């Protein structure tokens, strides 16, 4: 398993898919270290240790390369969520980037309109409140519901706004009729663009079906997630 994982790491490395390659190198190295512990043949141990040392050096080089890309504002990671895939709750996508220094968040999403989309946004806010970040301000830019649900949309957002206030978080709400892009930005420089915005989950089969409450268990629509890092996050 360790050899296969490292082989995959090398393939990803050659394809310049450095973030994925680094993960595979780290997993492969851990597996090979376990093999070394279980091997009694000293010659084999020596060969394994040599290879592990080579992989660790390469993993460290990749880590430095990724860090430089972040500093240069050139970092780009892409995640493809397949149709009906599970395991892609908001924590899965965002937690890695919600460091303790995050205090301000910008959400641009034209589809925070219907009840289930309001719940999506609420769950996203709940994740921010739980930390480990110390979010103080959330800026939401969305579009008005063009039908009869406009008052329900406004009431729902105002209720979320009031609830966040109880946790010391200010929700700034703005509307635009021309908004198209969907992106989420944190003031530590991370920007995440999801093809379908926050609304990439499928409707649950019923109110008492698995996945209704836990988004990690909810099947997804096919979409693409692009993650960037920039030195200066543009403010709305």
Automatic annotation (TrEMBL):
Return any one Pfam family short name.
MIT_C
Q: Which SMART domains match?
A: MIT (SM00745)
Residues in MIT domain copies: 1-71
Q: Which PANTHER family match?
A: MIT DOMAIN-CONTAINING PROTEIN 1 (PTHR21222:SF1)
Q: What is this protein called?
A: MITD1 protein
